[in-house]
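<goal> How does this chain fold?
<sample>
Here is the protein in question

***
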Amino acid sequence: MTTAKSSPNQIVVETLRSVRTLLGMEVAFVAEIRDGRRIFRYIDSDWEGIPITVGGSDPVEDSYCQRVLDGRLPELIRDATKIPEALKLPATLAVPVGAHLSVPITLSDGHVYGTYCCFSRQADETLNERDIRAMRLFADITGKLLEKLLEEERARDEAAARIRATLDNDLFAMVYQSIFNVVEQRIVGHEALARFSAEPIRTPDVWFNEAAIVGLQEALELAAIRKALPALEHFPSDTYLSLNVSPETILRGTLTSVLDGYPKERLVLEVTEHVSVKDYSLIAVALQSMRQEGLRLAVDDAGAGFASFRHILKLKPDMIKLDSSLIRQIDSNSGCRALAAAIVRFAEETGSKVVAEGVETAEELDALRELKVNNVQGFLLGRPAPLSAGRLGR
């Protein structure tokens, strides 16, 4: 039996609940101190009328937190109404505040993130030094978790900045790989592929995956599609242009305007899944009008995993692209050959065409011919090249 792994955020909340329960407090919270304000990042309480909310803030100078940090108030307060410095704060009587415990959250570089606090409206004379030691322990655990979260946040910010800089400075180009029909001995289409010149030098899938993580997948995919589309007029009129796009971008609805004005009968959308698709009918609806105009749909990476088969069954594509991992062993592995044969048979039954990608050897091509896979692409037949190469589609 497996259990779901708690996220750092969940663990922080669980520590607050634990310390609040242990000390018999009504409210426990973690506050960040930034730019002169105290910001409530995590709160645990069973008090319905609690006067603080996650994300809420107030001037740090008006808080217990600041006074504990600078030594004007002690970390352990059994009864705030008996301490003159606490009575200077309006909250002491307005909330009211009775018992209060607060310790700093210090990160590994010595920076004070904020405070780890709990309080009740009633005084509690039983609180002692052992309780404040427990608070310090929880604050130390929380500091380590927050440091991890802050590092992840910095990494996301850096990734987003990389993607935005790539888009703003046009640091990518499109290349095109020909798709051949080996029976007719001619090029039938071209797949548009992005190549990035931005640092760090990485494969295109890493760039697109990173864009998805930071919420810029649609922007990057549409930018690539916009840059690829003008090449269509340079290819023979009896060939198509294949464009890669995720289900998420399709569902946003902006793709329709990007493709507007281009001959849909010469366009193919290759769909690859990055996250689980919950409702395939929404994709069908989003593409319905363009498919009626002749736009064709291809499912990418068939044979690479269960997700691709779900795509095939739900999307009813015009084309099924056999994944290169399947092709790589198709001449030597009976299992790969059997799976490819099953997909070919399925395509025949449903009226789809099969395209094999990643063909690199003559032996692989011979195996595909035996399986009656007529449309292929790969290094054996042509490497991806920019339009300026002058040989695409000829």
Summary: The mean pLDDT is 91. The radius of gyration is 30 Å. The CA atoms of residues 195 and 204 lie 6 Å apart. Residues 170-389 form a domain with the TIM Barrel fold (CATH 3.20.20.450).
